[in-house]
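>> received
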Amino acid sequence: MKSYKPIECNRENPHYADPYADLNMIMSVMRPILSDNDLSVTQRTILKQDGSTILQTRLWHSSGQWIETRARIIPSKNDLQTYGSNLQYNKRYQLTSLLGITITYDFLDDEGEMDMVTTKQKLPDGRSYSIKRQSFDPISKQQIKELEKELYGFEETAEQIKEHFRINTLANLPQSKYEAAINHIRYVKDKLRK
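>> returned
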């Protein structure tokens, strides 16, 4: 089996300035790899009798075997643009989940690609991979002060970080997520200054 190539972010969320890889970028990298391994992907919507919409993403093998994921599409507003946006978002996340891939520098990547990049850079012996060390211990008082200093005047970014990590205060941020949070804050600030 051929290995995956890195998938880079090629778009930016205009509201939060978060980088992300769109569906076309993901598929342009994955399509040749899937084809070389007799695999293909289909995504379709299923309208249920209760009016809800289900997105079905199925990974097929040429033998006829398949696995799939399903997610209910729940747009925040009842209009076509919001529905389409929610559908595209779900298509990307179902696809990456089903294929077990991550996106380089995607802040919303719960598999910790940002943490792994940091860990790789810190290895003194030049090794290119290390087991991800996950810590649920909260950040130190000094780290809280550094976060607050970085976030001064960027309250919306602070709220976004708390919502993303499902924490009530910055003091509850896990140690293993501190570096990713700082990098994200600096990225957003740089984008807003341009």
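>> Residues 1 and 37 are 6 Å apart (CA to CA).
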